[in-house]
Amino acid sequence: MSKKHYCTGWKSAPSDVNDCCHQHDRDYGINGTVSRKEADERFLQCMLKNKRPILGRILYGLVRVFGGIWFKKKK
Prior knowledge:
single chain, mainly alpha, 3 helices, globular
């Protein structure tokens, strides 16, 4: 059984990166409990924790610029 891919546009993302993307997707979803900025910062912290500082900062910049398209506003 293949694992679901959570990093938009990157189907071969390493497992640790995919896990960070999964958390970020949950935070961005309608049932997420944090602001968009906090979700993005949590994503960056996850990437740093997984020893991916350069990739983490690049992806963090991308989600800060383009992520608003996917963020579900909380009611």
